[in-house]
Amino acid sequence: ASGSTKKKKKHNNDNDDNTTCEDKKVIQQEKQGQKQNQPTLRINVIDLCSGHGLTGMLFAACNPPSKNRIVNTILVDQTEPPSHKVLREMLEGVCPWLKEDGSIQFESMPLEDFGKMKREEEEGKEEEEEEE
Predict the structure, then answer these.
(1) pTM of the model
(2) For residues 50-71, b (16+ Cβ closer than 10 Å) or e, as one string?
(3) Which pLDDT belongs to residue 17?
(4) Helix or strand or coil: residue 62?
(5) Host H or E run for residue 72
(6) Consecutive 10-residue runs of the chain (132 residues): their mean pLDDT?
(7) Contacts of 71 by beta carbon, 8 Å cutoff, 6+ apart
(8) CA 109 from chain center: how many Å?
(9) What is the helix (H) or strand (E) element at residue 58, kind and residue range?
């Protein structure tokens, strides 16, 4: 015998702690309640000089809406090319949430006009907040 003593390692299983099944249920319900009470996150993606819009549409496709997340994608270019419609229909075939109203918009306008429109929207929101 080498004279060394070996300590038994205690594995941390569910049965090893003092938490009862009822306690675990309460903890799980609290976690679920916290998830349900989370505010909705609004994500606005603006793809400038978007061409056919594939980059912006792929972002929308990879980020489906959920209870707590809404993704809106605005594609901006001077003209909407025919390829946009073809690509969008193909993506909608595998990502049906892209068909939802407002999830993807194509704005055909010069960047300067889009910038002006967005500034006016922001100024309008600020005025509404000041009135409240």
Answers:
(1) 0.65
(2) bebbbebbeebbebebeeeebb
(3) 57
(4) helix
(5) strand 69-77
(6) 52 54 67 66 92 94 87 94 95 92 91 93 82 76
(7) 43, 45, 59, 60, 63, 64, 65, 103
(8) 27
(9) helix 54-62
